[in-house]
Amino acid sequence: MGKIFYRIAVPLVRLFIPKLETEWEVPYDGEPCVFVANHERATGPLEMATCFPLRKESHIWIYAAPLSRETTPAYVRQDHWWDENGKLAPLWNRIIPPLVSLILPPILRSVPHVPVYHDGRAATTMKESLRLLQAGKNLVIFPEIPTGFGEHDTEKINEGWLMILPMYEKRAGRPLKIWPVRLDLAQRKMRVRAPFVMDPELPLKDQVPELSRRVLHGIFDPC
User: 15: burial class by Cβ within 10 Å (0-12, 13-18, 19+)?
Assistant: First the structure.
């Protein structure tokens, strides 16, 4: 049911979202990889799930909370869906979470995805991600940190996903490439920047600042 729903939903969603032209800074080499993209609120995931040229070969990392009807309301309330200082905030707080909990989980579960856990099940996320990569699939990750309604941190990203780089290198015997994707709604462009990799000769912890800097540059720099 999920796959059928996804196939039906994709052309319908594409009718209502901005049409972005994909530009590759260098040609895609066909190797399993991680695409990291800016979120642009809901637009980023919608574009990557329905319009990205490699969507059929890619699985999106989706936070586990909105995949369940029971945990979606709390997720919506803490994810800055509305201006918490606005006059209508109390009303939205009562109405939107239960409504979204009916609609969002089945939609998200239909998308090819990896559930992302931040508790003791985090190892499950990594295990499934490695399985998909070794099967020739790609991952799509949105590493931004939301800081408020329509706002995000432009100097720091979530870095936990970087752990998959040495894990993949150890299993596959080659580095895992990171391809930053800049979704530029103003220019109607999906800019896929040139990939980069971690240095397999150095510990990951020593490279995190530079890897994060390159991701931030790739997903936010308009040039």
Answer: exposed
Q: Quote helix, strand, coil % in the chain, to nearest 5.
A: 45, 20, 35
Is 125 within 8 Å of 71 (Cβ atoms)? no
- At 194, is the secondary structure helix, strand, or coil? coil
DSSP 196: B
Cα 158 to chain centroid distance, Å, stands at: 11
* Domains: count for the chain: 1
pLDDT one-digit tens code per residue, 172-210: 999 999 999 999 988 999 999 999 999 999 999 999 999
Task: Assess contact for 171 and 130: CB atoms under 8 A.
Answer: yes
Taking the model in full, what pTM does it have?
A: 0.89
Q: Report the C-alpha gap between 153 and 143 in whole angstroms.
A: 10
User: Is-contact 140 113, C-beta < 8 A?
Assistant: no
Query: Whole-angstrom Cα distance, residue 183 to residue 140?
Result: 13
- Report pLDDT digits (tens) over 103-144: 888 888 889 999 999 888 999 999 999 999 999 999 999 999
The domain in which residue 67 lies consists of 2-220
Q: Whats the size of the chain, residue-wise?
A: 223
From CA 137, how far away is CA 114, in angstroms rounded?
12
> Per-residue DSSP letters for 177-212?
EEEEEEEETTTTEEEEPPPB---TTS-HHHHHHHHH
